[in-house]
């Protein structure tokens, strides 16, 4: 388990690698998703991610950060996800 502050720092580190700047990062209980990205740059992550393994957390972080550039799960999104993580399936809760 990691703290919320450690998680947010990981998000910011990945944001720098991806080349995006989230306006806000929130962690709260979510029922159906691991994360979400608003059109205004607000990232929200499910609090249960704090107890997940690093690979799962990283995947969700990178997916949501990529949505700041690519709002859908199209070819470019999948290609970039593959470039950063070496995988092409999206994570869905």
How would you sum up this structure, described in words?
There is one protein chain. Strand 2 and strand 3 (42-46) form a beta hairpin. The protein is built from 3 helices and 3 strands; from the N terminus they run H-E-E-E-H-H. With 93 residues, the protein is α+β, with helices and mostly antiparallel strands. It has a single domain (4-85), classed as Metalloproteases ("zincins"), catalytic domain (Zincin-like, 2-Layer Sandwich), CATH 3.30.2010.10. The longest helix is centred in the N-terminal third of the chain and has 15 residues, at 4-18. The chain has helices spanning 4-18, 54-66, 75-85; strands spanning 24-28, 35-37, 42-46. Helix 2 (54-66) runs antiparallel to helix 3 (75-85). It has a 3-stranded mixed β-sheet with strand order 1-3-2, covered by helices on one side.
List keywords for this structure.
disordered C terminus, 93 residues, alpha+beta, 3 helices, single chain, Zincin-like, three-stranded mixed sheet, 3 strands
What layout of secondary structure does this protein have?
Blueprint lengths: L3 H15 L5 E5 L6 E3 L4 E5 L7 H13 L8 H11 L8
Parallel strand pairs: 1-3
Antiparallel strand pairs: 2-3
Helix pairs in contact: 1-2, 2-3
| Residues in helices, as a percent range | 40-55%
Q: What's the CATH architecture?
A: 2-Layer Sandwich
Termini separation: 19 Å
Report the average pLDDT across residues: 92
Rounded to an integer in angstroms, the radius of gyration calculated over CA atoms is 12 Å
SS-derived structural category: alpha+beta
């Amino acid at each position: 388990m990691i703290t919320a502050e450690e998680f947010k720092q990981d998000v910011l580190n990945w944001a720098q690698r991806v080349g995006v700047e989230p306006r806000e990062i929130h962690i709260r209980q979510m029922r159906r998703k691991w994360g979400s990205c608003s059109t205004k740059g607000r990232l929200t992550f499910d609090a249960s991610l704090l107890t997940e393994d690093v690979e799962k957390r990283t995947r969700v972080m990178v997916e949501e950060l990529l949505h700041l550039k690519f709002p859908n799960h199209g070819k470019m999104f999948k290609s970039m996800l593959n470039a950063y993580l070496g995988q092409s399936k999206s994570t869905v809760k």
